[in-house]
């Protein structure tokens, strides 16, 4: 159990701060708290755009050298090297895995992580991040910010945010893979940068029968990016992407069935399957008015469609679910570098959704009756302003974020109209400070307020229903980043997030929410990155955390002190990279997770712990790369567990898999 305590001194320090962190130049990277996993590389583009925020706290960046040779069914598996994140692996076709952090669960029950791809918001309405359109070869880097100190984002930015950047370099390569479970994959990237104009294309195809019976999937993606610089001060760009994904769902097993044969599918799930599509178009503008003022504007239109058939247990009915998220909006950021010590950053954003959500009771995919039919608009508008001072050793900054909502919903079953619950403007102060004690030791602290906004029909009210206040989340963190040796960077932090009137969706399929009361999440993170010499490098992390119901109310007093469901006690990573000869790289990587409870009420048993180890060999052929990967090297058993009534249902994760790949660079 976690026994982390936050001292009154730390609280007093944080409450005195009035300033969030913003980067000025690459040579200032040692004056931050960011840890890099992999080589630090130059990210192409945006040289004339508004200055990005470089936050103080637990910020981690995984770069392309750690991503480009990975091969995954779902893109979220690229996050296993990132400290402090953990996963709920449903493994049910198009709804496969969700990522979580900071004591929140990955059940999809509480949106808490903002996802952006090339700066464009990419969460579904329910809060799940939709990133499967990105194959590993197309990803340039992944940045994960944990905590609620980031003023740039409001909606879904409850425990942190994820920024994924796609490639825009001048390179041409293809790669082919074959492996276990009849898995085949092809990826191709073409990038050309010439005389102020660049074009970049990616195509990816993956087909697999899957580890479990009835878990086959097939996915295809294509993207194009075109950028033009009419002058040294301006860059214009367009990004287009199409993605299609079809998958069978193997269903859930009893605990005995799962341990007896983890490859089997549930008999009742033989007709469960689904598909999803992503269509995306965005326009990007970066402009420097002069050496002081810089502007970035991004506008987008995109659609996420999901259609699936699912059945949770043999005694329940099959459902057909159709969800269409039509999203459009714009994000604008303006920054002013008044001097080497002062920077002002301001932003406005508008995120609009025109969605539909339908559900039917079905028998072998034949509709029997409709029990959900929502057609709704869900619009979020917000902005921020923040000011930073950076002295010789002190970096201190502060900002204020605001958010508001509009929209309405028509319920086709009850034939009722509702308007969105309007709480007015929600204000969220953000404060950060970092002090460089020595050239090798940085001390940092941050504080932030974020909010939880419900989704679905209960985000709307009418004359028969009353409004509600958004749940506020108050978080702070303090820690140190220490370069113990020239080749070793470490970061240790202690954090806590408190909430009142926390909302969680009901599990009865109604789309409603319930108030679970006051909650407290706290823990500590240790992470390190080592680049020992030309032969040896590595990284490791350990996060210990606790998430509890502090005050559930008189009606549920028996739950007081219980753990929140789906939150593991710890998560850890470890990676060793060895070059025995110049052209050969051997990588050993482990990802570990502790137990969690499957209910806020029933807490007599825990599930979900695992210890997974992967081994990889990469050989530089000169004209390309040959790779051999063994995932789950020791064929360890693990599963995702969910509670239905008084019984648990289990979804085993993949056993050992061996893949061989070869790439060719033009």
From TrEMBL:
<dbReference type="Pfam" id="PF00593">
    <property type="entry name" value="TonB_dep_Rec_b-barrel"/>
</dbReference>
<dbReference type="InterPro" id="IPR039426">
    <property type="entry name" value="TonB-dep_rcpt-like"/>
</dbReference>
<feature type="domain" description="TonB-dependent receptor-like beta-barrel">
    <location>
        <begin position="233"/>
        <end position="633"/>
    </location>
</feature>
<feature type="region of interest" description="Disordered">
    <location>
        <begin position="256"/>
        <end position="276"/>
    </location>
</feature>
<dbReference type="InterPro" id="IPR037066">
    <property type="entry name" value="Plug_dom_sf"/>
</dbReference>
<dbReference type="Pfam" id="PF07715">
    <property type="entry name" value="Plug"/>
</dbReference>
<keyword id="KW-0798">TonB box</keyword>
<dbReference type="InterPro" id="IPR000531">
    <property type="entry name" value="Beta-barrel_TonB"/>
</dbReference>
<keyword id="KW-1134">Transmembrane beta strand</keyword>
<keyword id="KW-0472">Membrane</keyword>
<feature type="signal peptide">
    <location>
        <begin position="1"/>
        <end position="25"/>
    </location>
</feature>
<feature type="domain" description="TonB-dependent receptor plug">
    <location>
        <begin position="55"/>
        <end position="160"/>
    </location>
</feature>
<protein>
    <submittedName>
        <fullName>TonB-dependent receptor</fullName>
    </submittedName>
</protein>
<comment type="similarity">
    <text>Belongs to the TonB-dependent receptor family. Hemoglobin/haptoglobin binding protein subfamily.</text>
</comment>
<keyword id="KW-0732">Signal</keyword>
<keyword id="KW-0813">Transport</keyword>
<keyword id="KW-0812">Transmembrane</keyword>
<keyword id="KW-0998">Cell outer membrane</keyword>
<dbReference type="InterPro" id="IPR036942">
    <property type="entry name" value="Beta-barrel_TonB_sf"/>
</dbReference>
<keyword id="KW-0675">Receptor</keyword>
<dbReference type="InterPro" id="IPR012910">
    <property type="entry name" value="Plug_dom"/>
</dbReference>
<feature type="compositionally biased region" description="Polar residues">
    <location>
        <begin position="263"/>
        <end position="272"/>
    </location>
</feature>
């Amino acid at each position: 159990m976690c026994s982390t305590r936050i001292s009154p001194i730390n609280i007093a320090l944080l409450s005195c701060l009035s300033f969030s962190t913003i980067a000025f130049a690459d040579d200032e990277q040692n004056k931050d708290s960011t840890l890099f996993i992999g080589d630090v590389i130059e990210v192409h583009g945006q040289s004339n755009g508004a200055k990005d925020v470089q936050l103080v706290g637990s910020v981690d960046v995984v770069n392309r050298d750690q991503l480009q040779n990975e091969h995954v069914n779902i893109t979220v598996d690229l996050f296993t090297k990132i400290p402090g994140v953990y996963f709920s692996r449903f493994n049910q076709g198009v709804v496969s895995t969700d990522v979580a952090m900071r004591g929140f669960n990955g059940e999809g029950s509480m949106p808490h992580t903002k996802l952006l791809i090339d700066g464009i918001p990419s969460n579904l309405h329910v809060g799940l991040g939709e990133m499967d359109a990105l194959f590993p070869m197309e990803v340039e880097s992944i940045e994960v910010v944990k905590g609620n100190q980031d003023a740039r984002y409001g909606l879904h930015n409850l425990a942190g945010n994820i920024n994924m950047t796609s490639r825009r370099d001048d390179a041409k390569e293809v790669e082919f893979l074959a492996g276990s479970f009849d898995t085949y994959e092809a990826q191709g990237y073409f990038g050309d940068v010439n005389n102020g104009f660049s074009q970049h294309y990616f195509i990816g195809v993956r087909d697999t029968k899957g580890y479990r019976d009835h878990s086959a999937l097939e996915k295809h993606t294509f993207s194009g990016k075109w950028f033009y610089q009419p002058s040294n001060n301006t860059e214009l760009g367009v990004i287009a992407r199409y993605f299609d994904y079809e998958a069978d769902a193997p269903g859930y097993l009893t605990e005995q069935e799962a341990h007896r044969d983890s490859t089997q599918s549930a008999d009742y799930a033989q007709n469960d399957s689904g598909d999803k599509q992503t269509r995306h178009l965005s326009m990007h503008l970066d402009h420097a008015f002069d050496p002081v003022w810089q502007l970035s504007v991004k506008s987008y239109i995109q659609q996420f469609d999901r259609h699936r058939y699912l059945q949770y247990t043999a005694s329940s009915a099959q459902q057909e679910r159709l969800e269409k998220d039509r999203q459009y909006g714009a994000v604008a950021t303006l920054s002013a570098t008044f001097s080497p010590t002062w920077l002002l950053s301001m932003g406005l954003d508008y995120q609009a959704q025109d969605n539909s959500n339908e559900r039917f009771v079905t028998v072998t995919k034949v509709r029997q009756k409709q029990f959900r039919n929502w057609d709704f608009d869900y619009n979020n508008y917000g902005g921020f302003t923040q000011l930073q001072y950076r002295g010789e050793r002190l970096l201190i900054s502060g900002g204020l974020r605001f958010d508001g909502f509009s929209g309405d919903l028509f319920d086709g079953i009850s034939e009722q109209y509702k308007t969105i619950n309007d709480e007015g403007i929600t204000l969220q102060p953000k404060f950060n400070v970092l002090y460089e004690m020595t050239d090798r030791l940085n001390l940092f602290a941050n504080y932030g307020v974020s909010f939880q906004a419900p989704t679905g029909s209960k985000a709307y009210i009418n004359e028969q229903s009353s409004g509600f206040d958004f749940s506020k989340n108050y978080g702070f963190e303090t820690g140190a980043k220490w370069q113990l040796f020239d080749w070793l960077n470490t970061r240790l932090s202690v954090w806590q997030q408190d909430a009142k009137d926390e909302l969680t969706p009901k599990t009865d399929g109604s789309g409603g929410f319930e108030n679970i009361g006051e909650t407290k999440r706290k823990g500590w993170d240790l992470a390190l990155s080592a680049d020992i010499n030309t032969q040896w490098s590595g990284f490791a992390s350990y996060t210990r955390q606790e998430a509890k119901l502090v005050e559930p109310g008189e009606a549920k007093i028996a739950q007081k002190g219980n753990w929140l469901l789906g939150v593991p006690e710890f998560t850890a990573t470890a990676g060793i990279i060895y070059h025995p000869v110049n052209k050969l790289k051997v990588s050993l990587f482990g990802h570990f997770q502790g137990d969690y409870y499957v209910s806020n009420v029933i807490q007599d048993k825990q599930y979900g712990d695992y210890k997974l180890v992967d081994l990889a060999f990469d050989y530089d052929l000169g004209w390309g790369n040959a790779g051999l990967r063994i995932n789950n090297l020791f064929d360890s058993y693990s599963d995702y567990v969910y509670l239905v009534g008084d019984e648990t249902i289990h979804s085993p994760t993949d056993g050992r898999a061996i893949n061989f790949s070869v790439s060719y660079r033009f």
